[in-house]
Amino acid sequence: MASLRHGPRPWTFYALAIFFALFVLFLYGPMIVIYVLSFQGPNGGMTFPINGFSLHWFKALIEQERTGDIAGAFRRSLVLACVVGALTVLLSVMAGLGFRRRFRGASFVFYMAIASLIMPGLFVSLGIGIGFQMLGIAPAWYTSALGAQLTWTLPYGLLIMFAVLGRFNRAYEEAATDLGASNWQRLTQVTLPIVLPGIIGVALFGFTLSYDEFPRTLLAAGSTNTLPLEIWAMTTNVTSPALYAVGTVTTIVSFIVIAAALTAIALIERRRLRRISAAERTIGED
Questions:
Q1: Scanning 61, 226, 276, 279, which has its CA 20 to 30 A from the CA of 216?
Q2: Does the residue 94 lie in any domain?
Q3: What is the pLDDT of residues 113-134, one digit of tens each?
Q4: d(Cα 128, Cα 270) in Å, to the nearest integer?
């Protein structure tokens, strides 16, 4: 059999390769620069060449008088992101299950729910902040900012759950019903375990979108800053590698959350495959 001979690659291949390489460099190059400069010594500056190597600027982050309330802002953002992620999961799953049955006005409710995606975040924040003030309630990161961020995370959670449940095979639920399972047992032991990877994805979206959300939080957070607002404030009064250290820390936290979510999904899939293999062996023995 004659061996296959490949001709020269078209010029479009090399053009796309160069474009991709430039894209990766443009995307990750500035991030790498920030990570490197964050490990400078006490006398380090904002640009190269790097002056020494130490963790000095990471220690400076906890000194409120030098870099602002980074520690407090970090704690607030973590708590807010966890709450927003949990509420996004809860409401998205409930809405996804509710939309499995058609009802009058379903299309109107759906489009109204995702309409906030096209609204400018700054105006959403302004409207919520003014609304709370008109009600005599002081805007705060745990009330008005929480609501503002949900207008951003919920539409994404809804779209993900609609896609996940749209691919769900209802034959599993019908089989559970035939075996005598109640509605609650069918939901908790069949439906939710199968769509659990999608639910984890919704939680990841809710957490990450809240963790770095700026415009919808700007005018709704009240007198205390979340981490993105604190970083923005630092750009106006901090001219030291401490600003780079903040970027390094926040990136590490983001990677930890993403890795935890992907690990959880992988473990769920592995456990599911083991159960399927065990069930097949049992059937084969019978």
A1: 61
A2: yes
A3: 888 888 888 889 999 989 998 9
A4: 44
Residue 109 to residues 16, 55, 218: CA-CA distances in angstroms?
42, 51, 28
Tokens 């927003």, residue?
A: 84
pLDDT for residue 280 is more than 70:
no
Flag whether 182 is in a domain: yes
- Residues contacting residue 63 through CB under 8 Å, at least 6 positions apart: none
CA dihedral 211, 90, 150, 135 (to 10 degrees): -130
Range of the domain at 112: 67-273
How many domains are contained in the chain?
1
Q: Which helix (H) or strand (E) holds 213?
A: none
Q: Which residues of 209-241 are buried (b: 16+ CB within 10 A; e: fewer)?
A: bbbbbebbbbbbbbeebbbbbbbeebeeebebb
Report whether 138 contacts 222 (CB < 8 A).
yes
